[in-house]
Amino acid sequence: MTAEARPGAPVPSTDPRTGTVRAHPAREAGPADVHRAVTAAHHTLDALADRPRRAALLHAAADLLDAARPEILAAADAETALGETRLTGELARTTHQLRTFAETAADGGYLDARIDPADPATGRPDLRRTKTPLGVAAVFAAGNFPLAFSVPGGDTASALAAGCPVVVKAHPGHPETGELCARLLRRAAESVGLPADVLTTVHGFTAGTHLVQHPLTAAVGFTGSLRGGRALHDLAAARPRPIPFHGELGSLNPVLVTPRAAATRPEEIGTGLAASFTLGHGQYCTKPGLVLLPAGHPALEKAAVTAAARVPAAPLLDPRIRDAYLTGAAHRTTLPGVEVLLAPGPAPTPDAPLAVRPGILAVAARDLHDELLEECFGPLTVLVRYHDDTDLHAALTRLPGTLTATLHHAPDEPPARTRPLLTRLTPLAGRLVLNSWPTGVAVTPAMQHGGPYPAATTPTTSVGTTAVHRWLRPVTYQDTPPELLPAELRD
After folding, report:
1. What does each C-alpha distance from 209 to 30, 204, 246, 403, 457 come to in angstroms?
2. How far is the C-alpha of 484 from the C-alpha of 379, rounded, in Å?
3. Which of 91, 276, 378 is nearest to 83 (CA)?
4. Average pLDDT of the chain?
5. Model pLDDT, residue 5
6. What is the spatial distance between Cα 225 and Cα 3, in angstroms, rounded to a whole number?
7. What is the pTM for the complete model shown?
8. Which one of 79, 176, 179, 248 is the catalytic residue?
């Protein structure tokens, strides 16, 4: 642990446009701080067992966040440079999530209650199955969504809906925003008669490891890098009592374009790709980072390059992410056979000296390097040119697990052609997108935001109401008197 990261050291809030430190809104948590936070959260489990009250908590939290919108947007923009328009939409999504999970908690259908009455003829006992909260949920806030995947985000909302108190490991990229939202959620809890400690925050790199290893932590939700997530996943598995680790670790989100689609819709697909991979300046987990397209279609490539070149330079979320983007993009441009169609790199502006510009690289499918199959977080995408089906299928076999996979085809292509392609993509991804783009995730019951490893560590979702199941375990009551049964299992 460095001197700057010792327990009690101030946590800086940094302006990503300039790299200057704005404030120190929190302090690094040591082992004793983490122990206090987890223990306090654990002691609120009985209070959270009241489903109507925790539904009221989620509604109250949404109302308080809406009421504090100007203050929240100002803090979040100062720490992430995402802009008022984007953050306004993200706050609306965040409060929508909270209200949606409030309705989920109140309804109780997520408990999936099952009743099998006793059968005297066979001797089968009376069996009644429901779901019960796991315990304290450790939530790791994400850097790219300071609201929707952070302190008041989907992991927190789904865990509270399930009846699990939450300890959030705040993200170092937006500590002021995290603390502001935490105060509002704690105030919401007290306003409905629940302990404020149903939600607490801790800060610091080592606080995260202590949080995963604490014996009262029952499950973990993580959104972040492959390296960091895998290290925490292994810690969770190595505990004397291993716990579930629901990690979203990064994603390539490949796009497959058929020859017929490239020939009939080059401008539409090219401009759509540019808009998708530069959305949020390439800092969405669903950014299309690799595009399999047929060789010999320069119109599509030109449309993508022209549209992406018009995207204004902008800062990334923090200087560390900027450095990683510039280093990773520069390395990819030096790989044998890689052609630079639009050069990524620094592009300082008067208001944002740390701004960067997007990049587009191209390579033949037969020269596809392993490094190009790894996510480069930021506004960079790679066009992989295939010459025939052999080329294409060889590339598909090398793709890692991913959150999304997209297929662009022509409407008049026969199902006998497109169905096998979709079949090849299905094992790779949690969400399949046809003739559209994967950036943007709807908060609905049918949404799946997860995928095979390394996109995620468990076959669950972090978006949508079914996310509540990550924080629950089934339990069956056998021959239990009615007065001792949970309410949802009584006749």
Report:
1. 10, 9, 15, 26, 17
2. 57
3. 91
4. 96
5. 60
6. 25
7. 0.94
8. 248
In the chain, the percentage of residues whose pLDDT exceeds 70 is 99
Could you give the CA distance from residue 477 to residue 479 in angstroms, rounded to a whole number? 7
Report DSSP letters for 230-264, one per residue.
HHHHHHHHHSSS---EEEE------EEE-HHHHHH
Q: What is the pLDDT of residue 4?
A: 46
Does the active-site annotation cover 248?
yes
DSSP secondary structure of 198-230:
GEEEE-SHHHHHHHHH-TTEEEEEEES-HHHHH
Start-to-end Cα distance in the chain = 57
According to DSSP, the β-strands at 402-408 and 472-478 are unpaired
* Angle between helix 226-238 and helix 205-213 axes, rounded to 10 deg: 30
DSSP 8-state code for residue 400: P
Strand ranges of the sheet holding 359-364, from the earlier edge strand across to the other edge: 339-342, 359-364, 380-386, 290-294, 255-257, 402-408, 429-434
Region class of 8: left (phi > 0), else alpha (psi between -120 and 50), else beta: left
User: Which strand (E) or helix (H) includes residue 103?
Assistant: helix 84-107
How far apart, in whole angstroms, are the C-alpha atoms of residue 483 and residue 394? 62
Catalytic residue among 28, 176, 179, 285: 285
Note if 84 is an active site residue: no
Q: Which residue carries 């085809």 as its tokens?
A: 409
Cβ atoms within 10 Å of 234's Cβ, excluding its own: 11
Q: Report pLDDT digits (tens) over 13-39.
A: 999 999 999 999 999 999 999 999 999
Q: Give the model confidence (pLDDT) of 65-78 as tens digits.
A: 999 999 999 999 99
* Residue 2 confidence class, pLDDT cut points 50, 70, 90: very low
